[in-house]
Amino acid sequence: MDLKMPSALTTEEWIAKAKAKHGDKYDYSEVEYVNGTTKVKIRCPEHGIFLQTPHTHARPSGGGKCPDCVKAS
To answer: Looking at the domain assignment, is residue 1 inside a domain?
Structure first.
């Protein structure tokens, strides 16, 4: 039985997924994608940089927003 691990995303592929969910709301220029659980730097235009796991930020079921934006709403 040959079980293959799914290939990891590149930084560019992950940014494309994040933009598909969030549009141009966030700046991903400082993202260095390692895997789904290693936090990346995401810049909110209103509050600056926040750290979040790629899995949380790009998941389709919601969430993944700037924590300060969530507090303000």
So the answer is: no
Report how far residue 12's alpha carbon sits from residue 17's, in angstroms, rounded to the nearest whole number. Answer: 9
**For range 27-42, the mean pLDDT:** 96
pLDDT over 90 percentage in the chain: 77
At a CB cut-off of 8 Å and minimum separation 6, what does 69 contact? 44, 46, 47
Identity (one letter) of the amino acid at 68?
A: D
State the residue range of the domain holding 67: 27-72
- Whole-angstrom Cα distance, residue 69 to residue 56? 16
Q: How far apart are CA 56 and CA 14, in angstroms?
A: 12
**What is the C-alpha separation between 50 and 41, in angstroms, rounded?**
6
